[in-house]
Amino acid sequence: MLKFSLSVFSWPSRFRETPQFSIHYCKMLQIPYNYRHVIEKFATTSKKRSPSMNKISKLLACIIILSSLMLSGCASVTRTETNVDILQQNPDALMNGMSFALCYSEYRTGQHPDLGKGAVYPSEEEILEDLQILTRNSNFGLIRIYNSGVSSERVLKVIKENKINVKVLLGAWLGAEFSNHEGCGWLSEPITQDYLDMVTGWNKLEILNTIRLANQYKDIVIAVNVGNEVMVSWTDHMVPIENMIAYLRQVRKAVSQPVTVADQYTTWIEHGQKLADEVDFLMVHAYALWGGKDIDEGMSFTIKALTDVRKKIPKGQIILGEIGWATMGTELGDRASEQKQVRFYHEIKKFAAEKNITTFFFEAFDEDWKGNNEELQQDMSGAEKHWGIFTVDRKAKPVMYDLYPDLHPEKQINDIISKMTLDEKIRYLGGTGFISGKKIGETYPIERLGLPVFKMTDATLGSKMTKGATLFPAYICQAAAFNEELAYQYGKAVAQQCVADGYRILLGPGVNIYRVPNCGRNFEYSGEDPYLAARTVVEYIKGVQDNGVIATVKHFVANNTDHYRRNSNSVVSERALREIYFPAFKAAVKEAKVKAVMTSYNQINGSWAAQNKWLITDVLRNEWGFNHLVMSDWWGVNNTELLISSGTDIEMPDPNYLAAPRILPLLKSGKVTEDYIDTRVSNILRPCMEMGLLDNPHQDTTMRSNWPQHAEVAKKIARQGLVLLKNENVLPLDRAKTKSIALVGTNAEKTKATGGGAAGFNPGADFITYAQAIKNSAGENINVYTATPNQTKDADIALVFAVMLETENMDRPFDFDADTIDMINNTAAENPNTIVVVSLGGAVDMMTWLDNVKGLIYAWYPGTYGAVALGEMLFGDLNPSGKLPITLEKRPEDTHYYGNFLPKGTKLSRKFLGWDISMPQYDVNYREGVLVGYRWFDTKKIEPLFPFGFGLSYTTFKFDDIKLSSETLSGDDKLTVTFKLTNTGKLAGAQVAQLYVNDVKSSVIRPAKELKGFKKVFLEPGQTETVSMTLDKKALSFWDSDSGNWKVEPGKFKILLGSSSRDIEQIAEFIYK
After folding, report:
1. Is the pLDDT confidence value at 2 over 90?
2. What's CA 704's distance to the chain center, in Å?
């Protein structure tokens, strides 16, 4: 009771003349109803009393309450019984009577507060549109804004002038008043004192402006917040607590509204005692996601955070000032998603209503300006941009569909279909044709319904149809980088190229597994390992679709030959499909939420892929839940009834088997229903609707301003994807000691930028050849010249550039032509320091020349700018970190595919021959099952030429101290593997830590090891980093053919950790029960 009495005496001076505030404060202190009325009655009758009587009045009120409590047998207002919920507040504790509100940031794409680049504010019309969106079908009558600047004043003005029924919690944004460079992870240098002094001046002006707005808009502003997360230990805009208290007192003295400070729950726990008497309520932030929690722990984390605050500060009304759930974010992985936002939104909304805690959900709209980027809105991967319940372009996310049913894509799709004639529906099932060099493909427009053309473009390495677009390094080079974040940047840049010329459907990425080195499209794919392919394609697709373009994952499935793809039947077990050939597609669908799938030309176990019901309906749709667009490859179908029954939606590039003359008879006979056609149409419309393309399908030429950023992304991919395979003390070159470099081979000056077919296109006027890049990197003092082999004798270094054509519709031989082999050997005979630079997308026979050369670099196809990386690597400006995403065999006879690839007697050509549809169908027998690539070599104990995951560096690394979170697992338990990785050399560099799993004893044939985790780690000389990776049950499973399901057998498993599939440095064991 004494504690409560003292708290009454600490009521702010501005409350003393106003009995209503005394009543208000009693409510905030949560005095029970049966005692509160005593104070309310006394305060009300004291209106006519002299102000000098206030202290006496308050003391008398305390005495009355104390007497009442004593009579009721209670010793304290604060109940301590264990059955009392300390978070429960009374209904009148709610701000404006509302339990649920929104944090509002008004900035759209291209707009932002002043980030040193000049602020770009939204117009009043745009703000009005926002407020109308938020109040149209909802009760979002309370919003929080964060500062008193130009844009916030516009918000208040719009509300007042348009008489919008919205109240505002107004904020004063405070900047740094001392340098927190030791606590803030993104402040590398101390903030200068001059800057801090300037910001302190800004803060004082911000406080004055906040006071002005609070008083000017008294009927709208119902509370004021001073500072946002300015005392939390990791922020870059910290304000000393004594300064915060001074600001609070200044504001409270000047305004009539309640005043507080907003900060993390941890700050309230640490500083609450100092702040509690300075604020009128506690505004707490709590983010389960940033606390490392997933959705199942979201509410328990929140409740604990608030409970800890309440235990530390027993008095005062609690407001949840920020809480929410991100819908995506690279750093959050699958913990961030739209579905999880929906769940958390409803859980926290229910909690707020039950506890009478006004809760500001973070936030109304996505904010794409946020993030620590040099260029605004250049990287959409970060979670800080994706907390909105609406997207940045004001499209409702799934969490809003209950409130805004008209915005639900399914409602809009059904409305469109209901207006379509039968002829229009059938016509929509095919494209509008193909014109070589001018039009790849597009959907059919229906102008009267507002359905525009959706233009398509090839492919994974860049937008083939966009003029001036960067041609990126071969996609397999990206796989060699072993860097998921880089894959996102790759996809994002390609999407921006598409949008620049109005292409909204990208016919990529391709994710077919590298089964044989001869396949003409290997350079377009991600290598031989399904886990690596899955992890990189997920990020690539996110990069594409986050930037307004539909990605199309292809070619579904088991398309591992190209010249005979229209004649081949892939005879492959379901287990091999499930474990090797499906995972990248499944990850694209389940994790990346890809919007389109393209089928392959080949048959799978006797049924053409585009007409395979088991593949498309049973697996893709029913099992994986894919309800978006499935398209055929160009002219890749041949039977109407099979095509319809399969579940394929659209025939490309134009309708033949899905044309009206073939479909109408089937409708008449009852073999096809109009409902079935409606489903096909809806699957075509759905991705366009979800991506917002019906409203904005057109080009955005401003994307061309991003071309310089695309060039940098291309260089990053090449820098991290170059693989150094052999280095006998010849690299890196010393500029001071190197006088001349001979470049041998036409690929030096006439560098082949990429392979051919759908993925290949002109690299553009900015194309940098290998010769140019090396000359630029060497400098003026080194003579870099082109030469024939017999002109290399006097050069310090001879670089031989070996290249082979790879292209769609073609499968290449395994060896270089005789001229190339002679060029390598003759150069090596003349110059002992010969290095070979290989440009292609797969393995090649090296046994006739590898021992004769000092160095070997796999450079893949470099694209427009990738050659720059080679020039940097030669002189040590770049430390190579690429790893092979494929196994390089010594000879075909050592492999799993030998004898199981081509028809007998077939000889592959080095020239493009086009399609060969004259030959009869033949079977490609995948007899190796799941033993593809390194799985074959390691299980069969066959020595490869270079193993999967291998790549040299100019420094050395050491793996050490492997630890497992548990020695036994069962059920759905997860296993965390931690280890130390040290750069033991003298140069900074990166190592790809590779984690493989081995099932020691299995009832079925399982690979000796399977990649189940990787991480690229950049380290300075001598630096050690502790790395962790987490495995789940899926990482231990195999496809059980008998049960038709995934299975983990009890027993011992090994964790194998190293730098390649053959270079294992750490081993640990655990038991699965």
Report:
1. no
2. 23
- Answer yes or no: are the C-beta atoms of 837 and 870 closer than 8 Å: yes
CA–CA gap between residue 615 and residue 555 (Å, rounded): 12
Whole-angstrom Cα distance, residue 463 to residue 473? Answer: 13
- Determine if residue 517 is left, alpha or beta; phi over 0 gives left, psi from -120 to 50 gives alpha, anything else beta: alpha
Torsion of CA 298, 302, 307, 309, to 10 degrees: 150
Question: Are the CB atoms for 194 and 141 separated by under 8 Å?
Answer: no
Query: What tokens appear for 476 in the block?
Result: 């397999």
> How much is the pLDDT for 371?
65
Q: Which amino acid is at 1045?
A: N
Q: Using CA atoms, how far apart are residues 597 and 922, in angstroms rounded to an integer?
A: 26
Largest separation between any pair of C-alpha atoms in the chain: 112
Placement of tokens 């940047």 in the chain: 489
Question: According to the model, what pLDDT value does residue 693 have?
Answer: 86
| Domain residue ranges of the chain, discontinuous segments joined by + | 2-72, 91-406, 715-884, 955-1072
Pairing between strand 603-604 and 607-608? antiparallel
Name the pTM for this structure.
Answer: 0.79
Scan for tokens 């460079």, then name that residue: 181
Structure tokens at 787: 């030469």
Q: What is the mean pLDDT of residues 97-105?
A: 95
pLDDT, mean of residues 165-183: 88
**In 10 A of CB 317, how many CB atoms?**
26
Q: Identity (one letter) of the amino acid at 746?
A: T
* Averaged pLDDT for residues 180-192: 73
Classified as helix, coil or strand, 489 is helix
Under a CB-based contact definition with an 8 Å cutoff, are residues 224 and 255 in contact?
A: yes
Taking the C-alpha atoms of residue 827 and residue 786, their distance in angstroms, rounded to an integer, is 12
Tell me the backbone φ, ψ of residue 609, rounded to 5 degrees: -55, -45
Nearest to 288 by CA among 237, 354, 348: 348
Mean pLDDT for all residues in the chain: 89
CB atoms within 10 A of CB 383: 20
What strands, in cross-sheet order, belong to the sheet with 441-442? 441-442, 455-457, 503-506, 550-556, 596-599, 629-631
Q: Determine whether domain 91-406 maps to CATH 3.20.20.80.
A: yes
Q: Which two tokens stand for residue 56?
A: 């006496």
| 835, two tokens | 């290095």
Q: How far apart are CA 1058 and CA 1066, in angstroms?
A: 7
633 belongs to the catalytic site:
yes
Return d(Cα 853, Cα 827) in angstroms, integer: 9
- Residues 6 or more apart whose Cβ sits within 8 Å of residue 530: 513, 579, 580, 581, 582, 583, 584
**CA dist., res. 824 & res. 817, Å (int):** 11
The string over 1023-1041, giving b where at least 16 C-beta atoms fall within 10 Å of a residue's C-beta and e elsewhere, is eebebebebebebbbbbbe
144: nearest Cα among 465, 292, 363, 351 = 363
- pLDDT digits over 872-883, tens only? 999 999 999 999
Tell me the CA end-to-end span of the chain in Å, nearest whole number: 58
State yes or no: pLDDT of 742 exceeds 50: yes
Residue given tokens 């805004």 in the structure block? 404
For the domain made up of 955-1072, give the CATH fold: Immunoglobulin-like (2.60.40)
Residue 914, pLDDT score: 64
Two structure tokens written together for 990: 């990166």
Active-site residue identified among 130, 280, 633, 845: 633
**Interstrand relation of 596-599 and 603-604 (parallel, antiparallel or unpaired):** unpaired
715-884 CATH pick, 3.30.40.10, 3.90.1720.10, 3.40.50.1700, 3.40.50.2300: 3.40.50.1700
Assess contact for 928 and 515: CB atoms under 8 A. Answer: no
Number of H helices and E strands in the chain, helices first, is 27, 34
Q: Strands (DSSP E) along 11-154, which ranges?
A: 100-103, 142-144
Residue type at 870 in one-letter notation: L
Structure tokens at 992: 């790809």
Place of tokens 């900035």: 107
Q: How far apart (Å, rounded) are the C-alpha atoms in residues 970 and 955?
A: 40
Residue type, 229: E
